[in-house]
Amino acid sequence: MKRTALLLSLLLPLAACNRTSAPEATTPAAEAPAASTSVSAAAEAAAAAANAAPAATPAAAATTAQPAAVDPAAATAANTGAPLVAGTDYELIQGGQPFEPLNGKIEVVEVFNYICPACFRFQPLLTTWLAARPADVRFTQVAAPFGPEWIPYAHAFYVAQSMGLVEKTSDAVFNAIHVSNTLPGEGKTPDDAAIAKFYGQYGADPKQFLDAMHSFAVDAKVNRGKQFMTRSGVQSTPTLVIDGKYRVLGKSYEDMLRIATQLIAQERAAAAAGG
Question: What is the value of pTM for the model shown?
Answer without folding.
Answer: 0.76
